[in-house]
Every structure is written in C-alpha cells, then in structure tokens.
Amino acid sequence: MTPTLSAAQLRTLFLFESLSAEQLDWLSDRGRVEERAGGSAVYTEGEDATCFFVLLDGTVAMTQRVHGDEIEVNRTAQRGVYAGATRAYMADRDSDVYSNSLLAVTDCEFFVLPAEDFGDAVRNWFPMSMHLLEGLFLGMRANQTAVGERQRLQALGALTAGLTHELNNPAAAAVRATSALRDRVAGMRHKLAMIADGRLDGHQLHRLVELQEQAVKRAASAPERTPLQVSDAEDTVADWLDEHDITGGWDLAPTLVAGGVEVEWLDGIADAVGAADLEAGVRWLTYTVDTELLIAEIDDAVSRISGLVGAAKQYSQLDRAAHRTVDVHDLLKATLAILKAKIPPGVQVVKDFDRSLPAIPAYPAELNQVWTNLIDNALAAMGGTGTLSVRTYRAGECVAVEIGDTGRGIDPEIRPRIFEPFFTTKPVGEGTGLGLDISYRIVVNKHHGDIRVASEPGRTRFEVLLPLVAPE
Q1: 7-125 maps to which CATH number?
Q2: DSSP letters of 148-168?
Q3: Tens digit of each residue's pLDDT (9 = 90 or more) over 137-166
Q4: What is the architecture of the domain spanning 321-467?
Q5: From its phi and psi, is residue 392 left (phi > 0), alpha (psi between -120 and 50) or beta?
Q6: Beta carbons of 211 and 285 less than 8 angstroms apart
C-alpha cells in the first residue's frame, strides 16, 4: 500500500492548515509520501511537470540552467516548502514542464500530489484567487521581461561606452606614435645616407653604430626627473648644440634629454665623426632616440589596450567556468577598470586590499554584477564629488568586501526597504529598484553569504561577506 498522510497530518503543513476537513481528505486520498536519497534528483528542469512536491523532512537545493551552467538559486530545510508543478492551475504552456531542478541534498521525504489534481484543486477551491494569481504571474513576468531586457541593454551600453572611451585614448596614442615613427625612420634613412656617402671611414662608422646602441639603451632606461631637472638638462644640452653650430638645438634638446642623453655622450659623437659631420651624426642619433621613445609609447599604448581587454574578459567571465575559485581582488580591479569612464574627475578612488586573503569558491560573473551595482549606487549618492573606498579584509570565516562613499547617506526611514525589489530613491527613469535586490539574492541565496549596510551623512558602507569555504 502506498504511504500517505492523514488529514490531521496534512493540517500541520502551513500550506494546508486553513483547508476544510473535506479538502484535506481529498488531498489525502490523491497524494502519496515519497522518499529521495541524498544526492539524487527529485525532478529535472525541462521534464514534464507531473507532480507537486511538499517537503516533509530533509534539505533540498533548487537550481536553474543559465547559458548551459547549473546555478543554485535556493537551499532550504524548512518543512512544508513546496516546488515542482506549482503552475499546474494555469492554462499557460510553461506549466507543462519544470522551470527548475530540485536536488535532495540529504535524505528527504515529500508529500507528492499529481499535477492534474493540484491544478483542479486550486481552480475549483479558489476560483477568484486562481484568476488573481494567473493575472499577477503573467503581469509580473511581462514586467520582469521588459525591465530585464532594458537593464541588460543599459548594462551592455554602459560597458561598451566605458570600454570604448578607455580604449580610445591608448589607441589614438598608438596611431599618433606610429605616424611619427614613420617620419623618424624616413629621416634616419636620409641622415644615414649623408653619413655613409664616403666621408666617414670604417672606424668612424663603427664608433657611430656603438653610440647608436648606447642611445637605444639610454632611451630604454632614462631616469625619472622632476620638471625643474628636465628644464635644466634641456638648457645644458641646447647650449652644447649651439656651441657646436648645430642648427635648431632647442628642438633637438627635449628629445635627447627624454632619452637620457648628457653632454658627455654628445662629446663622444664629436670625437667619433669630427666637426664636419657632427650635425648629421647628432641628428641621426637623435632620430634613434626619438624612434625608441615612440616605440616605447606604442608598447605602452598596446599594453593598456591589452589590459583593458583582459579586464573586460575578467569582468564578463565569458571564457570561464560559472563557479570556480577566484581572488576577489581580481574581480574588483576588473570592475573598477570597466567603470573607470563612469567615475567623475571629482571622485577619488581609495583601495585598501588585504592581499593575504585566500581565493574563495564563487560565481565570479555574478559577483562582478554585485560590485557594479554597489559602486554605481555609491557614485550616484556622491553627485560627482567625494571619495569611493573599496576595502577587503577577513571577517571570521568570510572574506569581507566593503564599498563605501561620502555621499548624502541613506535615510533611516527607508533603510529597511533598500533590498526590496523595485524600490528606488533615484528619479523616475534613472533606476529600476532591482540593483540591490539582485545583489542581495546573489550574495545571500547563491553564495550563502551576507550583505549589510551602515549609513550616515558623509559615510555609507556596504559590507559583503562571502564564505571562505563553499557550504556542502
């Protein structure tokens, strides 16, 4: 005989506690008790939704597939929670399949009701409520779809705009340096032809090439100087060039000084080529220094572009596993790099990272969404001026990430509501009220962590706590 629950036992479940005796008897006749071993699937997303499950004992985890990855959305051991064919009362085709998967984390016991019977009970016992629920569900789904699409477009637009802005500067610098490099190489060829037209013997040419190699090394390791030191050095080099009758010395001096050239090195050129060919030799070696400086500028620009592309990949996590062990500092740096164009000039960013913190198991792409939401709110609160602080530290068995601002603060009257969906303090059209709700669900439901806030005018701190070890 199939085990079931009596009417009295069913009434102990919060879902059925208000039903009449006849309704409880009806459920008792049609339902059954089933057990699932720990680690087994109760049902799988996409399968025909044939049953409505009510948890009697044990722990379950609910998951959903997102772009091929299985994402845990909830885990509970609360007696009476339900899942499965929860929309069997609707005529909508979506109710024909399970919209998620349910896993028995430990050995579990369920009260199971066939989907057809559950749907009939809701429609017949609560006809008005059924219409209200159906309208609410369809309306909410349409709203969430529209808002979600809008948010994704806005996020993509912000990401693209910020990345384009950041990429534009190094790309333009590389283009300018490449154009200038082409001119310098052409000038170098011209001066080399003048030097090598037979007026210099082999020894002099060999010495000039040695000086060229020295110029390359000097340009690569030129010391950092203060503006005053640079000005003094340029005056000294320009005076030497004028004394040796080299035209346009003031134009050559800045390049030579930037390449680490000093008067003693210029004396070596004079000794190598003689007075007759000194100007051609100096200009040829100046072209060498300038060429090395331009190559270094191109290398720096390309490195910045590569770094930004790397930050974008780190931020989006498109080429990474959905759940893996990550260093939160890498995620924070990538998010700050992507949002750099959005940070006003009047906002100072202060980073205080505890590099001794270990890597943690997490969903990195979703944590990046949390950082983005919190930083975006902090920037909005400061109105263009203030200090954005990003701090990491250890809090017990958790890694703590604190994002603070010096803005106007959160009104104590609305602080309890800030994590509610669709609640926002931003002007109409500027906020959807989903940022903190999404962040809360990612941190608390997905990572089994916590998110807290402390605020007063001039000092607001959001603290995100993430477990060092993933819960079993």
Answers
A1: 2.60.120.10
A2: HHHHHHHHHHHHHHHHHHHHH
A3: 666 666 666 655 665 556 556 566 666 666
A4: 2-Layer Sandwich (3.30)
A5: beta
A6: yes
